[in-house]
Amino acid sequence: MSDLLYSVAVPFKRKGKEALKESELVLALSIDLNWFNPEQAKNVLGNAEKAGLIKRDGDLVKPAFDLNSVEIPSGFKPDSSIFERKTIFDRVIERIIAGTGMEKRKVISLINKKQEELSKLVVIEVSAILVALEHGVAVDDLIDEECAALINPSSSS
After folding, report:
1. Which residue would you say has higher pLDDT here, 156 or 22?
2. How far is Cα 112 from Cα 38, in angstroms, rounded to an integer?
3. How far is CA 156 from CA 59, 76, 134, 141, 151, in A?
4. Domains of the chain, with CATH numbers?
5. What is the DSSP string of 17-74?
6. Which residue among 30, 75, 132, 155 is least packed, with the fewest CB closer than 10 Å?
7. Closest Cα to residue 55, out of 102, 12, 114, 115?
8. Quick check: pTM over 0.85?
């Protein structure tokens, strides 16, 4: 699992809550954990929302994954890769893991199996999106992004 997923999960787990105000999350990530400055913490939340890891419910933020399925590694501390833009493929895998609790190895295996079933007639990102949809994982925004990338490959992420 990714640093982003762990970074989002830790404040909820530490506070023992399923929903927090954005300001509580920013304070937890910046002051309590001392992982980021407040502006970086806001960026982390923005990236987590774009990745489908959190959802907003009024002024509350909730994880879009099962907190109990996430085991935080001992001594975890995120690195700067949390701010890097991930590929569509990586983001689909993260969403499947977060949405189903499957291990990354199993997710990749399912994607490869789907790719073989389709006789490699589609790019691997499309196979990943199909696996996500088969498992009820929301990837509508990534479908649009992948379509745009297929039409104009120079804009692909």
Report:
1. 22
2. 40
3. 33, 31, 24, 14, 9
4. 3-83 (1.10.10.10), 88-155 (no CATH)
5. -S-EEHHHHHHIIIIIS-SS-HHHHHHHHHHHHHTTSEEEETTEEEESS-GGG--PPT
6. 75
7. 12
8. no
